[in-house]
Each structure stands twice: as C-alpha cells, then as structure tokens.
Amino acid sequence: MTAELAVRTDGVVRLRRPRLDDAAAFTTAVLRSVDHLEPWVSPPRDEAAFHHMVARLGPSYVPSVLEHVESTQLLGAFNLSEVVRGNFLSAYLGYYAFKPHAGRGFMARGMRLLLAFAFDDLALHRVEANVQPANERSAALARAAGFEREGFSKGYLYIDGAWRDHERWAMVRDVWLRQTLLTEG
Fold it and tell me: Which ranges in the chain belong to alpha helices (H)?
C-alpha cells in the first residue's frame, strides 16, 4: 500500500502532499503563527527544515498541507507518522492550523479528508492523535471528529524545549465507517 496522498477536496479545502515550492509560503505561515503554535507543536520554520519534512515522505511518514481551494492559501497541516502495516495497521496523527485561519472550521473539513485518506486509501485500522491537556482547541477537533480519549501519557513528547504530557485520542476504522454512513445516508 503506497503512502502517496492523492489530492482530496470537499470543494472548500484541499488536502495534498506538500511540494518543495511550498517552502516559502509554508514557513511564512509558520512564522506568522508562532504564538498560536507554541508550545503545542514545532513545525518547520525555515526552508531547509521544510525540505527535510518533504524528503521524509515514505511508507511510514505522510505529511500533507491543507489549502483553501479558491485562494490556494495554506490553512494548516496534517501529518501521519509511524504508519505501521501488518497486524497493527495504525498511525499517529499530528495537525495544526495557521493564523488567521484557526477557528474557522477549515481544520474540521481537513480532518474529514485526512481520515478518509487514512481509512480508505491507506486501509488503516487505527489513527491516534496525542494532544497536550491544555490544548483545548486540538482536543475539541479530535472529539468533534469522533476520536475517543483513551488515556494519559506523562512526559510523552519533547516539544518547544520540554517534555510534554499528552492525552491519547484514537479512532478506529469501524467508527469512521459508521460516521461516514450516518452523514452520507
């Protein structure tokens, strides 16, 4: 199964693989959003780091950018990492919005596209998002998408110069399929 992200859109937003020529727009969006993103995530802040992120694309790491269909402005990013096959069929999900687009519903749209890719195209069984307890917006996005809180991990990830506690949120394919049937039917 390939990790290649085909372009997905709902007519308002588009989820796609980042391209090297996105580097300037991406890093500009990150730098404009630093006070919004810290201490939650540490996305690439310069073109070299962005190029490294794009170069990591492979079977176990699938970065994506979310852009507005009409304006093509970058709205945020979603990353599937540690994609594991075999009996596990699982991945970790990271995501973040850029200013001034946060809180406008774009990430919820992008989350639906990302989950369709993860469960339909990659045929994963489980997607797990780890969220710092004080990051209420991120937890609300996971909850609204249908993720369930499964637990707490002390000192889970080293972000912005410190080991951060995280809540574990997860969704399995069966839940995704039920939600999809309910919204389509």
Answer: 23-32, 34-37, 47-55, 106-116, 136-145, 173-184
DSSP state of 21: G
How many other β-carbons are positioned within 10 Å of the β-carbon of residue 87?
Answer: 7
CA neighbor of 14 nearest in space, from 54, 67, 63, 72: 67
Residue 16 contacts residue 5 (beta carbons within 8 Å):
yes
Query: Where do the domains of the chain lie, and which CATH numbers do they carry?
Result: 8-184 (3.40.630.30)
Q: What is the pLDDT of residues 20-43, one digit of tens each?
A: 999 999 999 999 999 999 889 989
Report CA dihedral (175, 177, 179, 181) to the nearest 10 degrees: -150
Q: Model-level pTM? A: 0.92
Q: What is the pLDDT of residue 137?
A: 94
Q: What is the pLDDT of residue 105?
A: 96
The span from the CA of 117 to the CA of 182, in Å, is 18
Strands (E), 8-161: 8-9, 13-16, 61-68, 74-84, 90-97, 126-131, 148-159
CB contact set of 29 (below 8 Å; sequence gap of 6+): 74, 98, 99
Q: How many angstroms separate the CA atoms of 169 and 166, rounded?
A: 9
Answer left, alpha or beta for residue 123, where phi above 0 means left and psi between -120 and 50 means alpha. Answer: left
